[in-house]
Write a structure and sequence with these properties.
CATH class: Alpha Beta
Strand content: 15-25%
Number of helices: 8
CATH architecture: Alpha-Beta Complex
Radius of gyration: 18 Å
CATH superfamily: Spore Coat Polysaccharide Biosynthesis Protein SpsA, Chain A
Structural class: alpha/beta
Helix content: 25-40%
CATH topology: Spore Coat Polysaccharide Biosynthesis Protein SpsA, Chain A
Number of domains: 1
Number of strands: 11
Distance between the termini: 26 Å
Largest sheet: 9 strands, mixed
Length: about 250
């Protein structure tokens, strides 16, 4: 459902950097004839609630490729410690933006409807600092114990209580209809909160778990968690890129 409130200006920013320990040059890796970043950008073009989509990068090769397929680019510093810092720098180039959605540049199957839902949630509730998403897992799923899979638990009103790489919650007792939630790395921010967030030093729990969203919680932020069925995989390795290519070839 498109947002009709003319006081909001919501932009999607896709952070894309060349350097990657496991997969250098990942944003320009060709999948089904297009660079990875183009697949994500095209998904964002299907959204109804984004006023603009920007790629934030520190690399001229990525900038040239995005410009070539018709996208917009903001060049950012190569020295940012986190993706959120890169997002914040890019957002300064769009002063009219009231809300920013950080859309991972390595999720070529992201659901445009989820992005729209995050945008609508932020526009509808001025008390929210952030919004993110999670999908339910069966408590017996091996992903629950995988430290590479981030879990989240929420309050009864759907706001985040904690994120962890450990199994969360720990089921000392069986609780009917209580799934484990896998966190999806997509974030929506109010502009004012994003500007505050990047002035804070990394927090103790953030450093312990290596999860930057804990900095927000440790500083009292309100983060709404939207439950989604979108389980679209990201691309962290060349092998995963091959799997995405296989998935795209079966859906087109």
């Amino acid at each position: 459902m498109p947002i009709s409130d003319s006081t909001t200006h919501i932009i999607g920013i896709l952070p894309a950097r060349w350097a990657s320990t496991r997969f250098p040059g990942k944003p320009l890796h060709v999948i089904a004839g297009k660079p990875l970043i183009q697949h994500v950008w095209e998904r964002c073009q299907e959204c109804s609630n984004l006023d603009d989509v920007i790629v934030a990068t520190d690399d001229e090769r990525i900038s040239a490729a995005v410009t070539a397929f018709g996208g917009k680019v903001v060049m950012t510093s190569p020295d940012h410690p986190t993706g959120t810092d890169r997002i914040a720098e890019a957002a300064r180039a769009i002063p009219q933006a009231t809300h920013i959605i950080n859309i991972q540049g390595d999720e070529p199957l992201i659901d445009p409807a989820l992005i729209d839902e995050l945008a609508a949630a932020m526009a509808a509730d001025a008390t929210l600092d952030m919004a993110t998403a999670a999908n339910p897992l069966d408590p017996a799923d091996p992903a629950v114990a995988d430290p590479n899979v981030v879990k989240v638990v929420t309050a009864l009103d759907g706001r985040a209580l904690y994120f962890s790489r450990s199994p969360l919650p720990y089921f000392r007792n069986a609780v009917e209809n209580l799934p484990v939630f896998r966190h999806k790395g997509i974030y929506a921010y109010s502009r004012g909160f994003l500007e505050k967030y990047v002035t804070w030093a990394p927090s103790p729990l953030e450093k312990a778990e290596s999860l930057e969203q804990l900095r927000a919680l440790e500083n009292g932020a309100s983060i709404k968690v939207l439950v989604t069925d979108d389980t679209s995989p990201g691309v962290d390795t060349p092998g995963q890129a091959d799997e995405i290519e296989r998935l795209l070839s079966t859906t087109h």
